[in-house]
Amino acid sequence: MQLFLKIITVSFCLLIVLYFQNSLKAQEQQKQEYSLKSVTCKFYPFTGGNLDRSHWSALLQASNGKIYVGISTHADAGYMYEFDPATEEMTLLADLTKLAEERGKGIWTTGKIHVQMHELDGYVYFGALTEDSGPPAIDASSYKGPHWYRIDINNRKVEQLGLINSFWGLLGQVMDKERRQLFGLAENGHLYRYYIDEDYTEDLGRVDDWDICRTIFDDDLGNVYGSLVGGRIWKFDVSQDRLFDFQHIRLPIINQPRTMSNPMLNRKTEWRIIEWDPVEKVAFGIIGGTNLLFKYDVHTGDEGTITPLAQVCPPQFRSGNPMAIPTARLAMTISHKERKIYYLPEMMSAFDYGDESFDVVDEHKFSEKLSGKQVAPLSYFLSYDLKSGEVDDLGFIKTEDGRYAYGMDGAQASKDGKIWFAGAFAEPDPKKEAGKIVGVYPYSIGLGCYDPFE
């Protein structure tokens, strides 16, 4: 009997050991699969010679088929480029500091284009901002103020329009084509309305008193929506011409930062990127912290209903510590040709292209501590099928000449189904290097293209 029990015990222990060995092998095999899997895309560098350091949202394929991209340098100037997919020609259209007559005057300058752009009557419209651009020792009040701009897509001319406000530029923008109006969410937490034909800007009031969300959207009726700290939502009701803070609806957040020693509010509780779908007449967005993809049906109930769909962070972070999930990026787009959402998350929590961050004392070490290792800033590529609800992990992004993508913050699906995106790519040429992410990974800003039908 004792011998039998010993045999049973030894067998059980062997089974446990084999189970864990197989489990570890499976995990290692999965990690290896994720580390090797990649998707190939085309790469087009920006040729202005300005060593542009970042890109945020400003990417649009216009009705002429050409792609317009706004690039930022934080400390210097905002630039507008035009790319022709037919000829693969990249053209610098404007240096906004020269257009605004700020260059060389020792004042703060227009150094950033952060909004999603919109087209109307052959013009592409966008708003700009400063954000620490210009000599750091100069009084910030020297800034002339942010303006609206438009590009004539027929002659490539970029024109400065009316003033938005005295200082605070835009991060979010939508267009009401029917009423010929633009709405812009500024850094001071105010929502602005621009009357295109009158070249006149109206301050609609404050919608946030802290760190505003980066994207807003408008529905099929012209109402405008935004997110604020704590997973809350605000709405500008166009029929009543007034703002509302929703009282009952909240975004599904599970990793809101909270410490007793360092109390904070955090943009991880807002949506990072959101887009209106004219087909289903709902909005699809991604939560800043968890990378949770959700659907927002604004027409159901008094404040709408929110349905969580899938976690779309890189697969290595799913089902793990929610505080270790990298912050969501702005590179999401709906492909109406395929009825899929394409999204390009990242492996590293710090999302400002490795520049110095004042949000966390050392954001990169903080990320490494949470994840337990040093993480390369690789971009990941995935899609979500709106018909089946399945996530397709395409893999890391690699260009045809072998460079990896290091952080995308703008994306758009073209009518032919190609996915265009802009951001940081590995840069092997020191002369073309814009900077080093976390002091290790040299990069430059470029335009990428993925064709799912090739």
Overview of the molecule:
The relative contact order is 0.11. The protein has helices at 2-36, 96-99, 363-371, and strands at 38-45, 54-61, 67-72, 79-84, 89-95, 118-120, 123-127, 147-152, 157-163, 170-176, 181-186, 190-195, 200-206, 217-218, 224-228, 232-237, 242-245, 271-277, 282-287, 292-297, 305-311, 332-335, 340-343, 380-385, 391-399, 405-413, 419-426, 435-437, 441-450. The termini are far apart. It has a single domain (31-450), classed as Methylamine Dehydrogenase, Chain H (7 Propeller), CATH 2.130.10.10. The protein is globular, with a radius of gyration of 23 Å. It contains 3 helices and 29 strands. The longest helix has 35 residues, at 2-36. The chain is mostly beta strands and 454 residues long. Residues 3-34 and 355-361 have low confidence and may be disordered. A hairpin with a 4-residue loop joins strand 8 and strand 9 (157-163). Strands 1, 22, 23, 24, 25, 26, 27, 28 and 29 form a 9-stranded mixed β-sheet that branches.
